Structures are given as C-alpha cells and as structure tokens.
Amino acid sequence: MPSHINKRLIETIERGFQSQRVLVVGDLMLDRYLWGMVEKVSPEAPVPVVRLDHKSHTAGGAANVAANLSSLGCRVSVIGVIGADEDGRQLVELLQSSHIDTSTIFSTTDRPTICKTRILGGRQQMLRLDIEKSGELSVELDKLILSGFEAQVSGCGAIILSDYGKGVLSDVVCKAIIRRGREMRIPVFVDPKGFNYEKYAGCDVISPNRMELAQAASADHRNLELLLQKGQQLRSDFQFGHLVVTLGELGITLLEADGIHRFSAQAREVFDVSGAGDTVIATIAAATAAGLHLHEAIRLANLAAGIVVGKLGTVAIAKDELLAAVLAGEETSQAEKVCSFEVLLQRIAHWRVAGERIVFANGCFDLLHVGHLALLEQAKREGDRLVVALNTDRSIRALGMAGRPIIVEDARARLVAALPYVDAVVLFDEETPLNLIKAVRPNVLVKGEDYAEEEVVGANEMRSWGGKVVLIPLVEGSSTTEILKRAIASIGERPREFVQ
To answer: Which stretches in the chain have pLDDT values below 50?
Structure first.
C-alpha cells in the first residue's frame, strides 16, 4: 500500500474517525459466556462436565456493531427492541458504559431479549443456549422504530442496518430507512440476512458473507467465480451501490459497476469468527463516513476482522489495535521515520499493543560509515522495532568535540532513517539520552563494545524494568575520527587545483 494512503489511514484512525455520528438499526442481542475447564465426563450421561470459573457478557448482533463503532471513536445511536427483562437491562447498561445513545431502544413484553449463552471448556465451545423469539414485530413497534429513526437521523454520517433476521428490519422498515437515507444523502450500509434482498434495494453498500450471498443468489458457494458473477447480477437488479463479500481467509471482494476488486486477508490464527461481520460493516461505515475511499475502508475492515477472529468470544475492535496493524504493515518513508518525541511515544504505544520488542540505540552518527551500519543492523536483530536517538548539533558541540558535527542534524537524521532496519529516528538535545530512555522504556539498549555495561547510560534503568543491555562488536578501523584523519592526510597529498 503506498505510503500516502497509509498516512491517510493512520490519521483517520488517530482522530477517532473524526468522531462521526453513526446510527445503527437492527436486532440487538446479549452474548453471555460461561468460562470453565473440562476435567471429567458426567457419570449421569456421556457428556463433559465443565467446572465454571467465571462469567462474562458482551454486546451481540446490532449491539456489537454499535460497540465496534464506539470503540473506533464514533458517536453512536442505536435503534432496536429488547424484552422487559434482566437481560435487556444488562444489555442497555453495557451499551451506555460504551457511551452509546440508547434512548431509541424500545422495550416490549411480547418477546424476551435475545440472549446467546455459550459454555466454554478451555478454548473449546461446548454448548450454545439461545433465548429468542423471532418473527415480525407489531405494527406499533414498527412505527416506534421509524419515529425513533426520524428523531435520530439528522446529523448522521452513516446509517447501518444490522439484520439478523429476528424481526426488527421488516420490509417496511428497511425500505423507509433506505429511502430516507437517499433523500438526506446519508449512505446506508447493510449487513443482510435471508433470501429477500429486495427489501435492501437502493442501499449504498451491502455486505453478505459467502454463504449468505450463495443463499440469496441461489448459487453454489463452492464455485466462487460463478458466485461473484451472480452477485454482480444481484447488485445490478437491486441497484446496490456496492456489494462487499466477506470470504474468510480469502479476504474481501468488492463488486461494483466498474468490475471486481479483491482484497487479500492477512494470515492469522483463527479462534472465533463470532462478530467478524459486525466488525467489517462497522469499520467500512466509520471509515467511509470519515471521508476515506471505499477501497481504503475495505482494507481497514480486512485488518480489523483479522484482529477480532484471533480472539475468543465476541469482541469489538479497538482503535489502538487497528492502528498497530496499519503501522505494522506499512513501509514508512524516510521522512516519516524522523519524528518528534511526542509522535515517537505514540508509535511505541502502538508497537507495544502489537506485542513488538523495542530496541534503542543512540549516538552522533556523524559521517555515517560501515561501523555504524554494522551496529544498527545487529541492533535490529535484537527486537522488532529499532529506535535511534541522535545528538543535536548543539549537544555535540557541548560535549567538546571540536569542529563537529561535520554533517548537520537534519541531514544526519535523514541518512540514518534511510536505513531499512531503522524504524524511527528522534533528536535529543540533552547531554545524555537518559530521560529519553526512561520515556521509551525499551526492551533492549544497544551500545558499541568499546563501552563496559556499567558505563552505559541507562543500564541501571533497563534492569529495573526487566530490559537488557547488549554490547555489539565494532568494525575495526571504522570510526568518524579515523575517516577524518585519512581524508585530511589524503587532501594534503593532492595538488592544490584538485582540492579547491
């Protein structure tokens, strides 16, 4: 991905998708987890006995879409129906704790809050127990949903219809919302369910998974090329602006008027696909509302889905995790590697979220030579990210180094940043980099073997947080001083006209 695109993605995520307001309408659920270990088989029946360790609960269905949006930094309002029960109250509290507007969630005595209880033994799901009553809502509830929509839609950057086929998104409700969205020029994103795609006609983006598209298009899910052809016909028939097909380990494929575009997924270990579709539609909507092109939004959604399937249970994507994934996949340009102290700390925070080890090196790096290259190359092998701290021109002069530096600080920084094994370069103006080391808290501090460990600035601090100091052998005869001596001697031997 070109660096200018990555920069735009990074800025969008860091700004929390510009705090765009997104409205989610759909089937709300509570996901409950009972966590334990299997130690024996029941003597009463041939079933495993799970010894309960703890319980947890998260937002599910359309509520999980809302949770993903809020976690990314959007302002979110939800429209849906819950039962007049404890599960409903618990779900509302969960959403409110994530700063989601729940004022248009309607309670009814006609049906319970949809709740999916999963029993897990270790990392293995043993059983799922569902409490739900699906089917069409009453005319009165349909009217409440549409009146709630009218009350909430003003000022929205996107509308998401999260359909789990439980009854909230009837034909009447879907058509009215899509029509109103088009009138107000607010993009409508749909996560569909079932055979009836006519009710989603005219939406801007619809995002079925492979099996859902096969069902709607009456196609064999195993024949991908034919499935995508039928998907294009479906897109044309129902005037969908774009059809986004999620294909699991094959990534995401976008069907639009100008053709088919494929976006590969990153290889990741999959623990649980629960909620991955919610994450995809939420990320695409948030990114598009924030001004990103749909292709860029899909790239982000691909990364986000890859993160959540690597976790057990229904989990919303975290903004820092998404940013770390983008940073991990980018090829940072030379100029972008040179950063301020504040930006450096932000990048390090994201690298740590991704579980990466930070290596720190410092020095003047005046007249970059093979000895410097060898030291920094070896330093990178000690971890995942290499941060190089450079003395400013003023601090070098303060050290009493006569006639130095030869190369000014901006040029020295750009030269070091050009090395492929360097991830960040920062200038420091103090006598030593101790305060910088304390702020960065690297996993590894490297220095040349001409130092003893007790002489290395920051060695004591490294030990205090479990880091280590690595002394790297020097390349014999390679030093700035030696190079300068040979250069001066060489000039003295040349004719005057050669050196002028």
So the answer is: 1-2, 331, 494-500
The pLDDT score that the predictor gives to residue 497 is 41
In a domain, 245, yes or no: yes
User: Tokens 């003047």, residue?
Assistant: 364
- Reported as type and span, the H/E element at residue 35 is strand 28-41
Query: Is there a contact between 391 and 428 (Cβ–Cβ < 8 Å)?
Result: yes
Residue keyed to tokens 């920051």? 458
Give the active site residues: 278
User: DSSP class of residue 185?
Assistant: T
Residue 499 lies inside a defined structural domain of this protein: no
Residues 324 and 342 reside in one and the same domain:
no
CA–CA gap between residue 482 and residue 261 (Å, rounded):
56
The three-class DSSP label of residue 23 is strand
Give pLDDT, residue 498.
32
Residue 141, both tokens: 């509830």
Angular region, 170: left φ>0, alpha ψ -120 to 50, beta rest: beta
Domain-ending residue, one of 329, 344, 363 = 329
Residue 44 lies in a domain: no
Q: What are phi and psi of 69, to 5 degrees?
A: -60, -45
Cis upstream peptide for 48 (omega within 30°): no
Count of structural domains, the chain = 2
Decide if 253 contacts 260 (C-beta within 8 A): yes
Domain that holds residue 73: 3-31+57-115+130-329
Write the CA distances from 108 to 59, 412, 415, integer angstroms.
19, 68, 67
Residue 480 pLDDT = 60
pTM score, two decimals? 0.69
Q: What is the pLDDT of residues 384-393, one digit of tens each?
A: 899 999 999 9
Name the 3-class secondary structure at 116.
strand
